[in-house]
Amino acid sequence: MARIFNSIRQRLLKENRLTRYLIYAIGEIVLVVIGILIALQLNNWNSERKERALEVKTLSELLTSFQGDLKDLIYNLDFHNKGLVSSEQLLKAFDQELPYNDSLDRHFGQFYNVSVLVHSTGAFETLKARGMDIISNDSLRRQVVRMYDLIYNEILENQRSFDFVDLQENKHFMFEHMTDWKLFQTAKPKDYDMISKDPVFRNRLEYTVQVRGMMCAKYRRAVDECEAVTHALEKEIERLSE
Q1: The dihedral formed by the CA atoms of 43, 49, 51 and 54, expressed in degrees to the nearest 10
Q2: Distance from C-alpha of 207 to C-alpha of 2, rounded to nearest angstrom
Q3: Is the pTM for the entire model greater than 0.70?
C-alpha cells in the first residue's frame, strides 16, 4: 500500500501537478489519521471488553460467596432463635411454678445453643487486590463493603465477647445437673425443683435471653442485607452480560 501511494506521489510531482499533489497529500494524511483513530477505538473497545469481563467475573465470585454466607446466616439465626425460645420457656415455667414435664427436656437441651458465623472472605480479598473500583456501580460497591466491614464484623465481635465463655459455664452446668444429655437437642434435669429455684441458673437464663435477643436481631439484619446484596449482584451481572 505504501509503495502504491509513493508511486502516485512521484508521478504527480513529475507531471508538475502541484494542486492535485496537495489534494492527494491532504487526503493521504486524512486516511492516516482515520486509520489511527480506528486503531485507537478498537484498542479502547478491546480494553473495555476485558475490563467488563473481569468485572463480571469478580461479581460472580462475590455472588457465590454471599450465597454461601446467606445459608450460614439463616442457619445461625435459627440456632440462636431456638436458644432464645427455650430460655424464655424455662423462665416462664419457673415463674409459674409449673411441675416438671418431659416437654421441658427440649428446652433444657437447647437453651444454650451456640453457633458461630463462618463466612467466606476469599472473594472480597480478591476484589481488594484487583481494586475496589472494578465494581463500576457505586451503590453496589458500597453494599458489598458494608457487609464485610460492618454487618459481619458486628456479629463476630459479639461472638468473641459471649459465646465461648458461656459455652464453658453452661457445659459444666449440664454435666453436673443433667442426664440423658444430647448436645443441643434434649436434656433431663436430675433435680427439677432445685434447678427451678436456683438463682444462679435463673440469672444465666435471663442473661441468655438478652444476648440471644440481640444476636437474633443482628442475624435478621444480616440475612436481610445479604439477600439484598445477592439480588443486586444478580441484576448487575445480568446487565453487564447483555
Answers
A1: -140
A2: 87
A3: yes
